[in-house]
Amino acid sequence: MNIAAIYHRPESEFAYLYSNDTMRIRLQTAKEDVKLAALISGDHYLFGEKWYLNKENMGKGLSTAYHDYWEIEVSSEFRRLSYAFYIEDFEGNAYFYCDQGIFPYEEEFMKQDSSYFRMPYFHEIDRFKAPEWVHKTVWYQIFPERFNNGDPSNDPEGSLPWGSKKPDREDFFGGDLQGIVDKLDYLEELGITGLYLCPIFTSPSNHKYDTVDYWEVDPHFGDKALFKELVDKAHRKGIRVMLDAVFNHLGASSHQWQDVLQNGSQSKYADWFHIHSFPVHYDPVPDSEFGENINYDTFSFVPNMPKLNTANPEVQEYLLEIATYWVKEFDIDGWRLDVANEVDHHFWKKFHERVLAEKADLYILGEIWHSSQSWLQGDEFHAVMNYAYTDSIKAFFLDSEVTAANMLDGMNHQQALYRDQTNEVNFNLLDSHDTPRMLTLCEGDKEVMKSAFVFMFLQKGTPCIYYGTEVGLAGGMDPDCRRCMPWEDQDLELLDFFQQLIHLRKKYADVLSFGLLRWSAEKDRVITFQRSFLGKTLRCSFNETSEAQTIEKLGAPLFMQLTTDNEDYILEPHGFVVELV
């Protein structure tokens, strides 16, 4: 047995409170190296009763290319737990794994009460809590400048006719909040239950990620009264609203940065930013990839996005007042936090406390593209933009060389990083304002794109559609992925497909979020999985080979593509079937 691969860490994603009186415990071992894993557990103060001689078998859950993860849920009458692990290999060797290390499974090593892992007390206040409504939500991301022009009177000067060209970085087309209000019926009919809006605050750009005034709606989008109308009408339709905030940096035309430019080190905002010397300056560097020599910190190397010093108490209070203002005054349901990984943890802990004091079930979503355990301990974010997870899905459906095993390795690796509470509400997406659109990545093949979206919608987490994807909007990398929403020329067959998919997701949200998962990848490019919860089981099969595949029929088909329903299912290439079994 590969003892070096055995791993557990208390009070982490390996051991955490799931409900107020139950713990979920996870153990890592080398892949296919362990025959049996079991939990030894009891109350520290009752150690004399020799509960350490009892074992409770763990179930093998997720597996990656190198590891298996064993899982169990336990409770305690006294709301505290001491525990260790019994591990047996295929040759009959047994080991005792505890807080002090790994030993032979013998009573002399087990009867030292100080050697056990512990959850000293089940503190409800410390339990990771995610908003219950999120796992039931189907999101729709809107880039406001490109969704719909509802009020031409507020168009920026020089705005182009709607959809008249592919967008360049500086183009305006006149999209606004009135345009979103006007299309709420469309979104309701589509089945959307959550709106994620890219920034709406005052800014000179079309994307608004260089905010200059967080207290106001950009006048080219409308005003606060119109935004309030949008939120109220959305709520009446059962649609939540999440705003996008950039608390990592300000736009260069903000009054704070302009004061620094004018007054230098004497500016009352001089410590609001990370400035290395005065006066602040940036010098163009011809033919440089980064473009400038800058004596202050910025987002990336963009000189008009100076980075905020969020360790400064004045900056903290300024941003926290903004964050709570839009919750109090407009009843928003979530904050999506841009460049979240570049802001200090100290600030995000304060943010978490302040906004949840205002609205206990507010959803806090961080934009982080990499492993994010540090932000997901229960006192900062509920979830992250789950790019690392969905990239594995995209790779499988877009690259014929990627096997089902490859995909599962990547997906399961990401799931094993986090508590189940996070996995249940992580933000799953296949395209966005920062990525090429799926139809373009699929080279126009709608059947491939539909298969990928169905697969993503059937995973744990909360799924999102980027505006226009549902009607066949294409686009390459930013800024091409930010084309105007087509309202006249739409792919209605694709729209109907997404309506059905959203209906399926919403109907079986509990099964897909909480269900026991069993994967099967018997062929390189054929995958089947089941999720079971409270007496309901969904089986989902996908064929990404170049030939038809036969799948044993187990139940009634709920949703399928390129599939013949006979005594067995015949799945053509890019075919899938979702059954209720």
Automatic annotation (TrEMBL):
Glycosyl hydrolase family 13 catalytic domain span: 141-505
Keyword Hydrolase (UniProt): yes
Keyword flag Hydrolase: yes
Pfam families: Alpha-amylase, Alpha-amylase_N
Keyword field: Glycosidase, Hydrolase
InterPro entries named in the record: GH (IPR017853), GH13_cat_dom (IPR006047), Glyco_hydro_13_lg-like_dom (IPR004185), Ig-like_fold (IPR013783), O16G_dom_2 (IPR045857)
Entry protein name: Alpha-glycosidase
Organism: Candidatus Enterococcus moelleringii
